[in-house]
Structures are given as C-alpha cells and as structure tokens.
Amino acid sequence: MPATDIDQVVNLCKRRGFVYPSAEIYGGFRSTYDYGPLGALLLRNIREAWIRSMVQMRDDVVLIDAAVLGPPQIWEASGHLANFTDPLVDCTNCKNRFRLDKLSFAVRLRGSVKS
Predict the structure, then answer these.
(1) Which of 12, 63, 106, 112 is the most buried (most CB within 10 A)?
(2) β-strand pairing of 113-114 with 88-91
(3) What DSSP string runs through 19-39?
(4) Can you give the pLDDT at residue 110?
(5) How far apart are CA 48 and CA 56, in angstroms?
(6) What is the pLDDT of residue 106?
(7) CB under 8 Å, gap of 24 or more: what pairs does 58-64 form?
(8) Alpha-carbon torsion 71, 64, 32, 38, what sign?
(9) pLDDT-based confidence at 109, cuts 50/70/90?
(10) Please, are residues 42 and 33 in contact by the beta-carbon 8 Å criterion?
(11) Domain-by-domain residue ranges, the chain?
(12) Which pTM was predicted?
C-alpha cells in the first residue's frame, strides 16, 4: 500500500523530533501526540502568537486558564445539561440521520433535509 501525504508528513515529524504518538510503545492513543523538543517549541510559539493576537491586542477579551474536566454539578449549574440539544435531521433521499450542525449550509438551503 503506497504511503499517503499525511503518512509522509507524520513520518517526517517523527524523524525530526516534532511529534510522537502518545504512548506509542504501549499501543498508543488515537489522535493524541507527545511533543519532542522541536515540537514543544513550535507549539509554544504558536500558542504565544495566538494569545498575542487574540487577547493582548484586544480590549474586549481576557485570558483565563480553567480546567477542561469538572464534576457534573458544574455542567448542571451552567445550564449545559438542561439546555444542550443536538438536533438530528432525516434525509428523505438516503434515509440516513445526520447531526444538523454537521450538514453544510448549502444542503440546508436546498430544503432536501427536514428537521
């Protein structure tokens, strides 16, 4: 099987010390990477450039650093549990069900999908 472009990029990044699949010697995790010396510096530079342009150069944005994971009480108190919906739509042509936010704007405009 020929290598795809993404395979070539991943192999180059691994050889050059940018990224490595997390826990690779133990089977790894999907879509998670550990950063090597060059990758860690690149990630840091990208993060600092983003903070500079999206936070420091604006007066209407402040930077916070909060936990991503939390107890269910946080999600309940914020209204995420009671108000969160994931609308599904049924395609009348193929008879499949799709998440509304994943459908392209053009398909929704055509009217071939009914909520």
Answers:
(1) 112
(2) antiparallel
(3) EEETTGGGT--TT-EEE-HHH
(4) 59
(5) 10
(6) 46
(7) none
(8) negative
(9) low
(10) no
(11) 5-56, 84-114
(12) 0.51
Task: Tell me the C-alpha to C-alpha distance, in Å, between residue 37 and each of 11, 14, 19, 34.
Answer: 16, 11, 9, 10
| Residue 92: predicted pLDDT | 85
Tell me, what amino acid is at 106? A
Distance CA 32, CA 95 (A): 34
Please tell me which residue, 53 or 99, carries the higher pLDDT value: 53
Q: What is the pLDDT of residues 28-68, one digit of tens each?
A: 777 788 999 999 999 999 999 999 999 999 999 999 988 87
Sorted by sequence, the CB contacts under 8 Å of residue 86 that are 6+ apart come out as 99, 101
| Residues facing residue 89 across a β-bridge | 98
Q: Which residues contact 33 (CB under 8 A, 6 or more apart)?
A: 19, 20, 21, 22, 39
C-beta separation of 100 from 89 below 8 A: yes
37 neighbors 19 (Cβ within 8 angstroms):
no
